[in-house]
Write a structure and sequence with these properties.
Chain A is an alpha/beta fold. Helix content of chain A is 45%, strand content 20%. Chain B is 50% helix and 18% strand. The N and C termini of chain B lie far apart (104 Å). The chains are: A alpha/beta, B alpha+beta. Chains A and B meet through helix 1, strand 5 and helix 5 of A and helix 10, helix 11 and strand 16 of B.
Amino acid sequence: MAAQAKILIVDDERDLVDAYVRLLERSGYRCVGAFDANQAIQMIDAESPDLVITDLSLPDNSGVEIVRRVRAKLPVTPIIVMSGHNTPGLHEAAQAAGAYISLLKPVSIAELRRVIGEALAR
Amino acid sequence: MTCYLGARGKATVNSLMARNDGSNNPAESGALNHLSIDRGRPIRIALYYAVGALIWIAISGRVLSLMPAHSYALNLSVNTLLLYLVVSHYTKTIRISVAAQEEALLRARGYFESAVEGIVSVDSAGMICQLNPHGQELFGYDEEELVGQPIEVLVPQRFHYRHGAHRDGFFKAPKSRMMGRGMEVAARRKDGSEFSAEISLNVVHTRSGKLIIAFVADISERLVMEREARRNETVDALAAVAAGVAHELNNPLAVMAARIELMLLSDQDLSAQMRDDLLVLQKNIERASRISHSMLSIARQRPGVRYAMDMNVAVEEAMLIVGPEARGGMLRYETNLDRSLPEVMAEPTGLEQVLINLILNARDAGARLIRIETARAPGSAAHLQLSISDDGPGIKSDVIAKLFRPFFTTKPKGTGLGLWLSQRIVQDHGGSIKVESVAGKGATFTITLPTIDESSAARAALPARDEPPAPPQIPAARSNQSGR
């Protein structure tokens, strides 16, 4: 049933959210996108996604907040975090908050698909 | 004084001395107060000694002159006794002072010989008087070869014209100081080679005149280290800038990669040419992403995750990645890979990037054949060695010296970062990279890396045996699979 899974993609880079949504939909996932933490939190509540992919380097450093929110609301939903840079402690904080895996951007689509497959199969 | 002697039957040397010179120097009396002299026989003995002492005094001349002032009112025996006491006191003092002088000389000799600086003494004519053992080591001369030679033999020729004047000036107004403060001073060895020196000048006044004592330290290594430290600071600052740029590039690269992938997946028929172009774009975006990742690693903010990896596999992957690109340049590979090599604990992307850089450099230099070898490092069971040799035009020695500097490039469109990054990546893995080249006969880059077998630090970083190893297919990832 993994192909039916609903994925929430959060990134302030709209072009990227758009591309990921289209690509992952081609792979059979249902996708929703959010461009900031507020939108993301609304979607988490409204859509109950099966998997969340979020950028960590969102304005106001809200990436880790999103991870906490998902963890609190949806205890088994895997969270994949991505970041374009490596601020010390950021990835550690995300993992401590319950992220499944953290990836350094840019992540190849093949890699992303594989990680999503693994995360949903657990 | 006689009375004193008679009444007590004994006179301590102490009391006699006290009355004799009007002072009671504890240091002197301390040396003598163990003596006490009986009224009878001891005086004869004293007399006997006094005769010997008198002869001694007559020869030395110095002590005798003290005598009349101290002996006016004394009778012969007391006078003789006093003479004996004074003489024995002075003889002792002299004996003590001779020993002290010997001791002082020994000490001075010890300082001179054990100093870690070279010590050279020069007389007012500019001639070398003495050179300590470390100085001999420093300059490559034996002391006999230098004594009596002008100090200028230790000064590089190009400074001779002004050195004499400086030396004369110093003798006229001597003041302890550092030589050439604020500038590098060069000193010349026997074989004509030079070293950077720090020299402090001091003056001692001896009976035969003024001597300049120069303390010489070889600071070549220190200067190299200081230069290196300054360079590293600059490099770190640059790396931070590079990491910032890499960060800014990551999102656009991710967008481009995703869009190209979408186009390739599109249902519309793409012409073969267009598909080919997109694949080239995709490959180059991957390459840019790799560089960007390296930049981030270089800035040491987020060291990439390390895995136990087989360097032979890294070689093959690098050849695969460069392969199609290199085909246009008619590049051929030859490999000689030792399949029994232990693994290394490494960040695969980083080391692959190094290999790709080296292969591309060889290609860009015009090589037709690239030979890649892996082997155990000669002389070290704990290291492996990977060499990439080419048949290109080779590298000139002046270029070799600058090869690993950031922003140094000989390519018209080079960034000058490839080899610098490569070196930093290899060094971050505890390894080293060196280059050898003979003009016209190609170049060989040799990478030495510690292997897991012997590296306990690397072993400690390995996952426990019963846990699945971290997924090597996602080198930039940090997995938290066991943490939930």
